[in-house]
Fold each of these.
Amino acid sequence: MKPVIEVAPEHRERLRRVNARLNVVFGYPKWREPLPAVDELVCTFLSQNTNDLNRDKAFSNIRARYASWDEVCEADPDEFMQVIRVAGLANQKGPNIQAALRRIREERGEIDLEWLRELPVEEAREWLLSFKGVGRKTAAIVLLFSLGMPAFPVDTHIYRVSGRIGLRPQAIDPDAAHRYLEAAADPADYYALHLNLIRLGREICQARKPACPSCPIADLCQFPDKVAG
Ligand code: SF4
């Protein structure tokens, strides 16, 4: 069952206003075409501690080398690590990916995750979280983007900007921020809010030097060290 989280009314209201503003300024975002859930799960494993380019190269390497996820299950572990090496941490990611695919096949009889759509979102999330190497962000990405389920992924950009803007309590860790922001935002806004907050974090509210004078939500932001224009 989903835990009950007390959300401060000002956070809920600010989230709503920030989402509306970013949808006007950036436009309603469109991510790439959704991948099947198993592909997305593998992609999110690959994406840990690397950039999108190297993640995509590693994923393409897998596609070029193996004809199916079953073949990845059977692959020699050392060879598979070589195939994904460009994504880094291959000695962790390789075994985690192969173990996850094997477990899916053992439990379900095939390597497919579409059945998760039939579960309540909390059950689907807990099942994904039971895999080694799958954290709340990975699980939420698969749930939201591949399966169309109401989950809100919090990456490093969203964690930073949500703290600065004042969309959540300051003293909570990223796992708690997942739970809090998911409770505070309207599920209908998860998709656009996730993508637009990442864009804000990458282009404007960067870690070292936030460009507050050109920020489209400066009037809504509570960051005490906001840079004056
Ligand atoms: S006003 Fe500055 S700190 Fe606030 S969100 Fe914009 S860039 Fe970030």
Note: The two ends are 46 Å apart (CA to CA).
Amino acid sequence: MALSGIQIYKLLPQTNCKDCGFPTCLAFAMKLAAKQADLDKCPHVSDEAREQLAESAAPPVRLVTVSADGREVKSGNEIVLFRHEKTFYNPTGLFVRWRDSAPLEEITAQVKEAADYVVEYVGMELTIDGLAIEATGDGDRFAATIKAALDVAQLPLILMATAPDVMAQGLEAAAGTQPLIYGATAETWEAFAELAKKHAAPMAVRAETLSELAELTDRTKEAGVEEIVLDPGVRDLRSMLMLNTLIRRMALKKTFRPLGFPIITFPSECADDEGMVSIVATQAIAKYGGFMVLDQFSPALFYPLLALRTNIYTDPQQPIQVQPGVYEINDPQQDSPVMVTTNFSITYFSVANEVDGSGIPGWLLVADAEGMSVLTAWAAGKFDAERIAKSVKSNNMEQKVSHRRLIIPGHVSVLLGELEEELPDWEIQVGPRESVDLPAYLKLWSPS
Ligand code: SF4
């Protein structure tokens, strides 16, 4: 039973020492009750109180970790239903599945292609998270496939088998990693739980109804397995949305512990063509899929999913930023144009990519706008004439270029007059409103 803020407060030391980062014990208690703080932040809470608070302080969605060779995929610890309420913490883990019935050479070649895939998105390198290997026959074949896949890429694993003895062989083959064991049912959960305990691995359970699923997680927990993943068993877009939402609501709003675990989804089992798989996967990333298993690997499928995931799992209160400063593109010289923009990552990369693609050398001056885009920053007073002038001066642009022409984004042409006052030696030029129009603009630009 979750405790209220006042009940939690009564168990805290009530010294208001602020060591937890909150001004008072009551403020900290309220945050704990809202699942927005970690009890460990208070170093003074007594063991007795800690025990009483443990249930209340436990995250409503249990954290589950799958790992191999230092790479981890974590899911859980979420505290809000909607990202804008605070943030989502642990991005959906994207796994690619191979069935061990395929020829080993084919599997290893495909594993290599998927594991080698790296795509850059707003300054981050995005990759797949792990491999899912499914047994279709005997344990020897399963074990051989796992070993062959790990020889190619030491990535976190999801091991899938229906028979516990086959899973046991798979787990031996995956020794040294912490895989997710999938998928125990009402018939097999006891044997799977023994394997999960023996190998200290998390375990996924599957049932046809939510009440059966809750019963299964209760039993699995009682058997000593803490890290559990839920498969509600549905394989269509509508049911998946409904059940995933219901599970997450029950966990967060009712603190219903039996469903307080990450969810695993299988978009490829919901559709035949890649387009529809992509739609199901998109929904699962947005709506509470903690681990996702896809049967196909292709950059066309993964790039948009990785980009979407990055956007959804970014803290909305902390935009992705680049370091303010001056960026040299295409080896600029003294007579190259100087453009100014903000340090919001998407803005920076949009502008930088256009200039880079044009082949025209240029200096890109990135002003500190607290990670906001041009118009937002301007409206918030974070991208004004004073800040731009400060950026020009602090980056010594007068020493770097022989001309005195500064190009500002077309969206903030209103800053022209003020900038002329701030930078009297410079000619302020209004560039295009959209970065896509920069190459054409730069082709006509001249330093005099
Ligand atoms: S660290 Fe503990 S005792 Fe100090 S203010 Fe926070 S909750 Fe109170």
Note: Residues 12-13, 15-20, 22, 25, 28, 42, 44 surround iron/sulfur cluster (CB under 6 Å).
